[in-house]
Amino acid sequence: MLLVTSADHYIGHCVTSHLARYSHVRPQLRVLCENTTTCLNFANKGIDVRQVDYMHPNDLSMAFQGVDHMILAIGNESNRVAYCEHLCQVASRSGVKSIICISHAGAVSTDHEMLAHYSLIEDEVITSACQWTILRPDWIHQNFHLWSTYVEKHRHLPLPIPENAEICPLDITDLCRVVENLILTTDNKKNIQSALMDDHVGQVYTLTGPQAVNGKNLVHLLGKSTGYEKFEYRFVRPMDTGYYLSDLPKDIWFDARVKHEKSQIYSDTLEGYEYRTRLLRAPTATQIKTYLEYFDWVHNEAGSLCVSHISAITALPPRSIRKFFQENANSFKPRV
Predict the structure, then answer these.
(1) Fewer CB within 10 Å: C terminus or N terminus of the chain?
(2) Are the CB atoms for 171 and 140 separated by under 8 Å?
């Protein structure tokens, strides 16, 4: 049995959706969530969905029965460190063989409170009784969905980093493919591995896209993808970005998109990659602070650097940010 945590948060939801493309894997999947709303379709498709209190010993003891592997998809809950520490402790006591921890590239930062959460959770994973592999994804392409309604209305992209500051974003599909390659057999049968491959045990992988991009590159790609060549990039204060993301639930266009996508999630066949086109929900306070600290880390420490771990694990080239904007051009195209 394979357990995926925080399936009601973005990373956990996408990983579950990706693995569920293999219908024979679904009965071997168990997902944990606090809110079942975005997980109802998983249950309809034969996946074992468990609504849990992550701090309740009995809830977790029941959830870990028969589990061999845990994908610790760190969510954006306000007390995610305590949640993940408790999950690791129960996993160790329950005889779980391995943990794949989906952390963050900014876990190496020592100056940011939210990014330090990931380091604390990684420490708990490393000191557990389970075999482990840690994945540190950089900025994810699909995070830009949160700016799509703003770009539509105002025709510029505002981010709290200078125009020349570079990031190495990756597509959520590539993160999910890495997880797939770690946990499923590489033959056509795609069965769950009995144990992590020795090559991956005790390894920390940084996951990035194929190239570094800056603000100027981003608006150029937006222009080429949408056909509107006058997009501008604007370096804004972190406070402005925080206000914008916090106020997103009040935006009628954003709210309409989220509601529409909720209906799509409920009817998703889980046979393709539709998960990479969706937002899932408005960002939480923890998520917003994490984004702001990431941008500060990139700006002040030049923290985002491209590495080739994705292609080394999947034997496939990672998807480009150009491809993301081409596939989602209608979401960013200015309204007439």
Answers:
(1) C
(2) yes
Three-state DSSP state, 128: coil
Give 5-54 pLDDT, tens digit per residue. 999 999 999 999 999 999 999 999 999 999 999 999 999 999 999 999 99
User: In Å, what is the CA distance from 33 to each residue of 5, 42, 60?
Assistant: 7, 11, 11
How far apart are alpha carbons 278 and 130 in whole angstroms? 33
Give dist(CA 9, CA 97) in Å, integer: 24
Give the residue among 100, 95, 310, 68 at the shortest CA–CA distance from 209: 310
Query: Helix crossing, 172-183 with 10-19: angle to 10°?
Result: 60
Q: pTM of the prediction?
A: 0.96
83 three-state secondary structure: helix
Alpha carbon distance 174, 207 (integer Å): 8
**Element (H or E) spanning 70, and its range?**
strand 69-73
Task: In whole angstroms, give the CA distance from residue 184 to residue 188.
Answer: 10
Burial 315-327 (b: 16+ CB within 10 A, else e): eeebbbbbbbbeb
Is residue 113 within a helix (H) or strand (E), and if so which, with residue range?
Answer: helix 113-126
Q: Of 189, 295, 303, whose CA–CA distance to 237 is shortest?
A: 295
Report the distance separating Cα 58 and Cα 52, nearest Å. 9
